[in-house]
Amino acid sequence: MLMRTDPFRELDRLAQQLVGPGTWSKPSAMAMDAYREGDEYVVAFDLPGVTADAIDIDVERNMLTVKAERRPVAKADDVKMELSERPLGVFSRQIVLADTLDTEHIQADYDAGVLTLRIPIAERAKPRKISIGVGSGRKEISG
Fold first, then answer.
1. Tens digit of pLDDT per residue, the chain (143 long)?
2. pLDDT in tens, 53-67
3. Where are the beta strands (DSSP E) in the chain?
4. Which of 6, 11, 51, 84 has a 20 to 30 Å separation from 62 between CA atoms?
5. 3-state SS assignment for residue 26
């Protein structure tokens, strides 16, 4: 079996352990994808292990803020943790949205650990045809 290795993965894991979990005043970043699909702008955030009630989405003017908290799972008293690599704490991401997006009609779905926001393109930003009026005749300029 062929395995790819990432020489920086261990460094990333160590850095996360040193920095510690994110807090509400200093949250960790979350991975995301953003793309345009037809007449919508789609933003997808990876939030595995986060319950839907631990996600907070706010829009103020053109600033979109997504915060989520991954809480520790309750364990029995006789459980001894052998390895813990999944980060806990608060995660956040802020995105400045263009004025061409309709922030009044954002749709949010959460499925299989992925939060997907669909933001429609505003009508005023969509391409449109401009009709050309034809004059009633020729005009002469006399001097």
1. 344 555 665 665 566 555 555 555 566 778 899 999 999 999 999 998 899 999 999 999 889 999 998 887 777 888 887 877 777 888 888 999 988 899 999 999 999 999 999 999 987 777 778 888 887 666 667 76
2. 999 999 998 899 999
3. 28-29, 32-37, 40-46, 55-60, 63-70, 89-96, 107-111, 114-120
4. 51
5. coil
Radius of gyration of the chain (CA): 25
Q: For residue 81, what are its two tokens?
A: 């943790």
Burial class (CB in 10 A: 0-12, 13-18, 19+), 138: exposed
Tokens read off for 131: 């009709």
Whether the pTM exceeds 0.90: the reply is no
Measured between alpha carbons, how far is 6 from 3 in angstroms, rounded to an integer?
10
